[in-house]
Amino acid sequence: MIKAIVLDIGGVLLRTEDRSGRQALEKKFNLPTGGADELVFNSKPSVDSTLGKVSADKIWENLAEALSLSPQSLQEFKQAFWQGDQIDQELLNYLVQLGQTLKTALLSNAWLDTRQELTMRYQIIEGQTVDHILISSELGIAKPDLRIYRILADTLKCDFNQILFVDDFIENIEAAKSLGIQTILYKPGMDLITAIQSKLDQQ
Question: Would you say residue 30 has pLDDT above 90?
Fold first, then answer.
């Protein structure tokens, strides 16, 4: 019996629907396809911030140094980089609706400023929008480390098999499944609401 629904944030609830800004940056700075994402998400400061070791500011300082950006140019880079990101409002509304009868949570590998960003930019607030928000940088542990799923289950006060977890990375899904958590691997274009509802209807 599913008692809790847990969504990843980046790539599931918050998705890059328009890549034109990042493509323009790649052209401007002579980066390969996907190079803008690589600089932002796969730098050492990004990995460190995901584990709570450094602030998100270090990520942008590193990028500014790598591309020799002035403060103004860095702000323009950040604006172009994030401009195509959108919250799936229909999915969020559905999750809030499910919260009337089920426990709800977000579980994200994300930087130290994520909770503030969720509040200020998207009005997603723990205890209001969803019951719990678990962020790797605050816990010092990131998916697919099995410990983060144990923290999730303890927080939800649910057995593993009572949790339905949605993520867009197969390694995170496989780790969750190894503990007995029910899962859905999100892929671009998937009707996720139907997929979740189907799981619930099968109970």
Answer: yes
Q: For 65, how many CA atoms within 13 A lie in the half-sphere containing its CB?
A: 8
CB environment 127-153: b (16+ within 10 A), e (fewer):
eebbbbbbbbbebebbbbbeebbeebb
Assess contact for 22 and 38: CB atoms under 8 A.
no
| pLDDT one-digit tens code per residue, 104-126 | 999 999 999 999 999 999 999 99
Residue 10: strand, helix, or coil: strand
- 90 and 131 belong to one structural domain: yes
Question: Do both 73 and 115 map to the same domain?
Answer: no
The Cα–Cα gap between 134 and 150 comes to: 12
In angstroms, the CA 7 to CA 140 distance is 19
Nearest CA-CA partner of 8 in 173, 189, 182: 173
Please provide the DSSP assignment of 100-124 as one string.
TTSEEEEEE---TTHHHHHHHHH--
What pLDDT score does 128 carry? 97
- Mark whether 92 and 135 lie in a shared domain: yes
Contacts of residue 38, defined as CB under 8 A and 6 or more positions apart, other chains included, come to 31, 32
pTM of the model: 0.95
| Total domains, the chain | 2
- The angle that helices 57-67 and 71-82 make with each other, rounded to 10 degrees, is 110
pLDDT at position 175 over 90: yes
Residues 100 and 144 in one domain: yes
Q: For residue 45, what are the domain limits?
A: 18-83
